[in-house]
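Input/output pair, single chain:
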Amino acid sequence: MAEQTQVQTNFSLLTDHDIYLFKEGSHFRLYEKLGAHVVQNGSVKGTYFAVWAPNAAQVSVVGDFNEWNPQSHPLASRWDGAGIWEGFIPRLGKGSLYKYHIVSHHNHYRVNKGDPLAFFWEMPPNTASVVWDLDYAWGDAAWCQKQAAHNSLHAPISIYEVHLGSWRRDPSNPSRLLSYNEIAPMLVEYVQEMGFTHVELMPVMEHPFYASWGYQTLGYFAPSRRYGSPQDLMYLIDHLHQHGIGVILDWVPSHFPTDEYGLGYFDGTHLYEHADPRLGFHPDWRSAVFNYGRHEVREYLISSACFWLDKYHADALRVDGVASMLYLDYSRKDGEWIPNEHGGRENLQAIGFLRRFNEMVYRDFPHIQTIAEESTAWPMVTKPTDIGGLGFGMKWNMGWMHDALEYFSQDPIHRKYHQGKLSFSILYAFSENFILPLSHDEVVHGKGSLYGRMPGDGWQKFANLRLLFGYMYTHPGKKLLFMGGEFGQWPEWQHDHSLEWHVLEHPQHRDLQKWVRDLNHFYRAEPALFELDFDHKGFEWIDFHDADNSVLSYLRRNKAGDGVLAVACNFTPVPRHNYRVGVPQGGFWKEVLNSDAKDYGGSGQGNMGGVEASPASFYGKFEYTLSVTLPPLGIVVFQKQPSSEPAPPPSPEKKEPKARNPKKTEIPKPQ
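Output:
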């Protein structure tokens, strides 16, 4: 226990320029000045504390070092009117538990509050902040030098969405969560083998209620103690980067929990949240809504965003709940919301905040991406702010996801009546920079797993899943798949249990997993599937009118124009023989992907390695036609071969199509 020494108030990390920026609303590195910092003050090492509490009459630091006595270590209020209280406690160091004891000017309110800018917290359900440092020797310089290329809108981006507490648990003690350090080598090995380019971590920021999955954030500058220390999370991200894998962090600026030790009613006033519940309380999540009209709150949130990009080397922030921020009447009935100054439902303050957030993070971290989870048709989410957009880099395509899953849930005999669910997405596919998400939200709350939502018997369920994934990987847009979907987990996701890795003992699950692996590797190798994701020049329909047969066919092109893929999807269990597919060039078209290959658990129907194009008009649109076999509930992809390459003769003895990269080695699963 540290020696109880009086607080020294003649020392400060805050300069006059810091205060100027803070009052102006443009200090976006608050984590360097506010909170608790272990520093040297002359010849004495100790901890400097600073907290914003403008309506407090008294603020003191309490902790295990002074037996939580609010009289021992009072802080001083700055003279400049910034509302910041500060002080230096000599010989107090890393690992000390602390809170701020706040006495408000209002109603004699007294409370112990955790530090809004704490770098570390006690293990929940304990609630104290912990004095900590962020020292770490990073080894990801090679990744950082190429970060712009890895995260480019023209790069292949295939995201594996992970909840750390349920991806894998200790097999000898399933109730024990694995640490960041323990997960790192297993996750790297698996993601590398499966071919994903990025991992998206559901919120790792500290949160009091584990079952919120991290979306009820309270520690906006601290990783969850449940998995280890800040340095342990740095190691996980560093390890992923060193093995060529990007890291996306979920970030939640839309609301926060109302636990007494947190941000709510912080200094005896509604400091971070709106006082009026019609603006400051979220009915869905029963949480507080940030007051985006207050520049100190905007600084706090943007500083949090910059913190994870700066100190933890994140490659992207996926912003949760954007739709709930944009609309004042989101999930509210008449009379439960207040119109804006123009009488509308748009939250003008939140819009201003989101634009400022994107402007600042892209200014300071130009090689990262911001990603909006925005579930409505709000215009220009991924357009620049100077032309009226919100400024995000990418946006989840929730419309595609809902339509695709609704279509795939139909019995194939009825799918011809719903073909527009699939073709409609192309009408708006290039209006935003879209990610196609099959996320955690689609396998919870009674929705069932992706496998469980597919119709038919067991074989048809797996065939439908292979077709769904093939359709997603060949559709314009970046890709996201939630853990467990890649091997067809049976039940829906449970946050307090490990994924059911044991199902990989069954060949159908292993075969599906191999299909996703090969899809990822093929996708990354074919620029036609990613270079023009957000440009209509990268996509062209061959035919979307054949609803009677439930067939869609289309082309994907690369930027140079010298690479073209022809894709055909058969959404029924009836194989289509001698089916005509129009193509723009003659010559040999190699079958490079077939979801019905026996290597993937299919029936083995296909095109003997490829098809020679015939000079026959396809409805006046193309001058050449392929006569192909479309396997049942299958997707086939053909690639135009160089004209100098002779077409290989068909092999009569060949009984099944050659699968792309059909490795016989097993995909490693975490042990």
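The domain at 16-130 is CATH 2.60.40.10 (Immunoglobulin-like). The radius of gyration is 28 Å.
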